[in-house]
Design goal:
flat, mainly alpha, 2 helices
Length: about 55
């Protein structure tokens, strides 16, 4: 599902620490995001309740 227009602003407003969306026409940015997701999955497996973790 592609996010377009003001939808990204609505979603971004739900996150206090910020959120990054790859820009349209810059597919190389998506690879960086997927790599970061893979690295995070090493520490936070799927279905992990992130509410029990602090930002520190």
């Amino acid at each position: 599902m592609a996010l377009k227009g003001s939808n990204t602003h609505k979603i971004a407003s739900l996150f206090t620490d910020g959120v990054f969306f790859a820009h349209a026409g810059k597919p190389w940015q998506r690879g960086s995001i997927e790599n970061m997701n893979g690295l995070l999955r090493q520490y936070f497996p799927k279905h992990t309740d992130l509410a029990i973790h602090s930002a520190r």
